[in-house]
Design brief:
The protein has one domain: Nucleotidyltransferase, domain 5, CATH 3.30.420.10. α6 crosses α7. The model has no long low-confidence stretch (mean pLDDT 95). The strands form two sheets. It has a seven-stranded mixed sheet, sandwiched between helices. The chain has 206 residues and is α+β, with helices and mostly antiparallel strands. 38% of the residues lie in helices and 22% in strands. It has eight helices and nine strands.
Length: 206
C-alpha cells in the first residue's frame, strides 16, 4: 500500500488470565500511519482485582502466569498508556468481539470508563473477502503471506492483524478504515461508556 495514503488505525490484541473475559494480563498495540506500521509495543499487567487468578488452559496458550505479572503494573495503570497510544484513531482486532469485549469487561471490573472508539474486525472482513477453511489469525495470515511467528504474543498478533488489514485494503484500493468497511458491506463497532455495538455485516450491502 502506498506509504503516503493517509491510512491510519491501531491494531490491538489482548490475552486473558482465565475464562473471565475481563481478566486481561497482556495488551499489544500496533500503530499504522500513512499506510505503514510505525510502531508496536505490548504491556504485561495484573488483571483487575476481582479477576486476578490464572488458569492452566490460558497459561498454556500464552505462557503468562502469576510470576510474570507479579511486578507488572495494574490493568488500570496500563489503560492510560493504551488510551494515549490509540488517540482518536480507529481500532482493529482479529475477532474484535473478544478483544474489545475483553477491554470493556476489564474496565467494568476495574470500575473505570472504557475508551470511546470505533473498531473494526479483520475476522469479519476476511470472511467477506476470502474463502477459507477457518478464519483463525494464523490461517488468515498464512493465506495472505503475513508473518506470524509467535501466535498469542499480544504485540505479534496485533502486528499481524494490522498487516492483514493493510493487505486486504490494498486489494480493494481503500484508503481509510471507514472506506474499507463500506466497500465490504460492513459497519464499524462502537465502544464507550454505556456504548457497545459490534463490527458487523450490514444486511443488503456489499
Amino acid at each position: 500500500m502506498d506509504g503516503s495514503n493517509g491510512f491510519e488505525f491501531v491494531a490491538i490484541d489482548v490475552e486473558t488470565a482465565n475464562p473471565k473475559r475481563g481478566s486481561i494480563c497482556s495488551v499489544g498495540l500496533t500503530v499504522v500511519e500513512n499506510g505503514a506500521v510505525t510502531g508496536s509495543r505490548s504491556w504485561l499487567c495484573r488483571p483487575p482485582a476481582p479477576l486476578v487468578y490464572f488458569e492452566r488452559r490460558q497459561v498454556a496458550i500464552h505462557g503468562i502466569d502469576e510470576r510474570r505479572v507479579a511486578d507488572a503494573p495494574s490493568f488500570g495503570a496500563v489503560l492510560g498508556d493504551v488510551r494515549a497510544a490509540i488517540g482518536d484513531r480507529p481500532v482493529v482486532a482479529h475477532n474484535a468481539a473478544f478483544d474489545l469485549g475483553a477491554l470493556r469487561a476489564a474496565c467494568e471490573a476495574d470500575d473505570t470508563d472504557p475508551p470511546t472508539l470505533g473498531f473494526g474486525c479483520t475476522r469479519v472482513w476476511t470472511k467477506r473477502e476470502l474463502d477459507l477453511a477457518d478464519y483463525r489469525l494464523p490461517t488468515v495470515a498464512g493465506t495472505l503471506g503475513v508473518p506470524l511467528l509467535r501466535h498469542h504474543d499480544a504485540a505479534e498478533d496485533a502486528r499481524a492483524c494490522a498487516e492483514v488489514l493493510l493487505t486486504l485494503a490494498a486489494k480493494r484500493g481503500s484508503r481509510t478504515v471507514h472506506e474499507f468497511a463500506r466497500a465490504t458491506g460492513t459497519t464499524l463497532g462502537r465502544l464507550g461508556p454505556g456504548t457497545w455495538d459490534g463490527c458487523r455485516v450490514v444486511p443488503g450491502r456489499g
